[in-house]
What we know:
The chain contains eleven helices and seven strands. By secondary structure, it is of the alpha+beta class. It has two domains: 2-202, no CATH class; 286-435, 2-Layer Sandwich (Heat Shock Protein 90), CATH 3.30.565.10. The strands form two sheets. A five-stranded mixed sheet has the order 2-4-5-7-6. Helix 1 (2-15) runs antiparallel to helix 2 (19-49) and helix 2 (19-49) runs antiparallel to helix 6. The longest helix is centred in the middle third of the chain and has 82 residues, at 162-243. It is elongated. The model is unreliable at 392-396 (pLDDT under 50).
Amino acid sequence: MNKLRNYFIGEYLASENDMLKRASITLMYHLLLLVVVTLLVFIVTYIINLVPVALLKSSLILLLFISCLFYMKFFKKVEPLCHIMILISWGNIWFNILFLFHNVSMFAVLTATLNIIFSFHVLGNRGGFFYSFLHFGTFIIFFALRAAAIIPEQPPARVLSPPEVLISFSLISSILIYLIYHYHQAFQMAKKNLDVSINELRRAKEMAEEMNRLKSNFLSNMSHEIRTPINGILGISQVIELETKDPAIQEYVQLQKKSGRRLLDTINSILSLSRIEAQKDQLLLSVVDMNKVVYESAASLEELARYKGLKFKVNQHTEKLLCLSDETMLYQVVHNIVGNAIKFTDEGEVAVTVSVCTESNRVNIKVSDTGIGISKEFLPKVFNPFEQESMGHSRFYEGSGLGLSISKKYIELLGGEINVESEKNKGSTFEILLPRYTRP
């Protein structure tokens, strides 16, 4: 039997990696072999009992099923064979009903049930439902035509002999039990694979969390090691600035201080981002006056705006607006967005407005500018870390591209959202929405 199995499906199984498909191939082979053996028994019975019509029908079906075995060997496909087997079986059911027994028998219903289970198992839901309607729909049509006397009742052309009944019932029972067993085995196999996948995902998640922790520790240690000498350099720069009167040295010192602060800001941004991703930031929630936080954060940048010749406005709300939030995070978010607005605006104004969104009862912080704007193509990427619209040698504005990414993650941690509207060369508007807090 193993040699026969290897001959017909050995190469097919070896070429298929999907375990469920391998199970379907084995199922198809076993069913074909079982039907072929049973048909051989029937043919011997019909020869002994001299039943020429049944003998011819069974011989034709036998040839078709043997052809299916060779089709599977050479073409290595299961789905077409499933259709062929079910349609042959369906045709056999209706040949028996219309020409031999003139009625729907128990064997016809059981065979239809087997075909439907088989189609669901190999072809999926679509094929299963199609063959369900094909089999039971035609049964209903037959009974309707019989009730309308379009198909008259008549005695059967022949009655199954006891050996035929025994063989037929044994065959149908065996196939039914085998299909249910095979379906259960396939289900158990899929469940086992799913459990393995879940365990692998759990291990991968734990490994990723551990890598995030190690990354956070590494960045924290490295940032400390880098910030300490930078602070020393900035301190020495300040001493030189106070001690020397040489304009050239003063200019060099200013450049050194500017570069040092830029490097320090970049290191702080990278550390903040890594802490958020590793979920190491713990929220220190308190009731915060949004007018106060926004005004203090924005006002610290007013001198920079005046230096660039920009109009700078902070419009506070007329009443006190409270949020249950982390004041340090909010301060950094507003500082980042207002700082960006000033950096990317060369003329015009930057306006910061605090208001209430009446539809959702949320605090609305809006930062508008008349700067260079953002193109429609880049808008979806504007909150991605390390991404800026001007990159490489064409870059004109300084920055690491982390400010907006950190701001978005902070606002989401606080239960809010941040949106942007922009038009190239006409300016941008960033809008922060946070849940409003009402004292109990």
